[in-house]
Design a protein that fits this description.
Blueprint: H1 6-12, H2 14-29, H3 33-43, E1 52-54, E2 60-66, E3 70-77, E4 80-88, H4 91-104, E5 112-117, H5 124-133, E6 136-140, H6 142-146, H7 157-165, E7 170-172, H8 179-207, H9 214-247, H10 250-260, H11 267-276, H12 286-292, E8 297-302, E9 306-312, H13 318-333, H14 338-348, H15 353-374
Parallel strand pairs: 2-5, 5-6
Antiparallel strand pairs: 1-7, 2-3, 3-4, 8-9
Length: about 375
């Protein structure tokens, strides 16, 4: 019997394949070590470590599709599927799988990159497990991954895990924010939930008064008032906890005072911006945050037939946009100052009122980033020394 070809023996002997691939990987990456070290050293200058490099520098890519109860994973070695499995979506199960995989196949934590879609709270166990094991984690926008695979038919978690693992882009590693920011994020989310309920019940009291039998309305309003009283008390307690967390952190306390020195920026808006920017570590450019908040206008043109006016995108955080809108409305129409004069001037020139208000929103964002960058309170009568 003739000897098997070298390439065939390579695939039939998994242990030999692993040894030869490890040796090949070491030879290929020796020239990249200095570059990787420079990237890591540069990244450590930020409070939240964000490292961007090509994911091909990793041996193993783990694509994980995270849901409430399970995690579907697809492990890639190069372009080949090395392993597919489904595990429970708990910290202990994910941590146990990662440790067992590294030990069984003799990989180090630096050889593995975990990729997943950011799905809010469902990714929290994965984040903690990766942090404990020491494996790099990359969380990507689900929308970007969904539209990266072209035309597709059908959908299941196994396909999603494969798509995540094969997603081609620059890696941006995720690191959990500080505990104070995490606590603030949870409190702000809970606060928004109760505020929405409070407005809903208050609307019932005012809108239905003239359209119901008086006796039925009195009974309904009594029940609603009980709910409103409890909601107001809960909101007050949450506000107290938010204030306590901020006062216990020197950086957060300073940032809140700086932001609140700007006309049109209240405490709710300031706290929301601090949470969304991770204390201005994730966003350092006001223009990028304007895009995130749905304030930046974009052009919509194609060839010679489509010539739409510039307009903002709906792919934005609407909760921030709503707070910025109320702040812009207050600064532009209900208080005297530079923004009020700017609003009246532009409206008198024939500009659309909502377009002008959107420009005021953008001005508020730029002012917030300016006071944080300069670490100075906003000066209403500031005069440029070079003017």
């Amino acid at each position: 019997m003739k000897d098997k070809p070298e390439s065939l023996r390579f695939y039939l002997d998994p242990s030999r394949a692993i040894l030869e691939m490890n040796a090949l990987y070491k030879n290929l990456t020796t020239t990249c070590v200095s570059k990787v070290r420079r990237i890591h050293l540069k990244s450590f200058s930020f409070h939240r470590v964000i490292m961007k490099y090509d994911k091909s520098m990793k041996k193993i890519i783990m694509g994980m599709d995270v849901s409430k109860q399970s995690v579907d994973m697809c492990v890639l070695w190069g372009d080949d599927i090395f392993l597919e499995r489904q595990i429970s979506s708990t910290i202990s199960c994910i941590e146990s799988f990662l440790q067992g995989f590294l030990k069984k196949h003799s990989f180090s934590v630096s050889d593995v990159l975990v990729c997943a879609e950011y799905t809010g709270k469902y990714t929290y166990p994965l984040c903690l497990a990766c942090e404990r094991v020491g494996v790099d984690l990359w969380l990507e926008n689900p929308y970007a991954i969904k539209h990266s695979g072209g035309l597709e038919r059908g959908k299941n978690d196994r396909q999603d895990a494969r798509k995540i693992a094969r997603y081609e882009d620059k890696v941006c590693l995720f690191v959990l924010p500080e505990q104070a920011i995490n606590s603030l994020r949870e409190l702000v989310s809970e606060q928004e939930l109760y505020i929405v309920d409070k407005k809903k019940y208050q609307g019932q009291l005012t809108d239905e008064k003239g359209f119901m039998n008086p006796q039925d309305y009195r009974q309904k309003s009594a029940r609603l008032n009980i709910l409103l009283k409890d909601l107001k008390e809960v909101i007050r307690q949450i506000e107290g906890k938010i204030q306590k967390i901020i006062e216990g952190d020197e950086t957060l306390s300073r940032q809140l005072k700086l932001l609140c020195s700007i006309d049109g920026v209240g405490e709710r808006t300031a706290v929301k911006v601090i949470v969304e920017t991770n204390a201005f570590r994730d966003f350092t450019d006001a223009r990028k945050f304007c895009c995130h908040a749905g304030v930046a206008p974009f052009s919509y043109t194609s060839g010679s037939s489509i010539r739409s006016r510039n307009r903002v995108s709906h792919r934005a955080d609407k909760s921030i946009k709503a707070l910025l809108h109320m702040g812009a409305l207050t600064a532009a129409t209900r208080s005297k100052g530079e923004l009020h004069e700017y609003y009246l001037k532009k409206v008198s020139e024939g500009k659309n009122k909502m377009s002008v208000l959107n420009a005021v929103r953008a001005k508020l964002v730029h002012r917030m980033f300016a006071v944080i960058r300069n670490n100075k309170f906003y000066e209403k009568d500031y005069l440029n020394a070079l003017a």
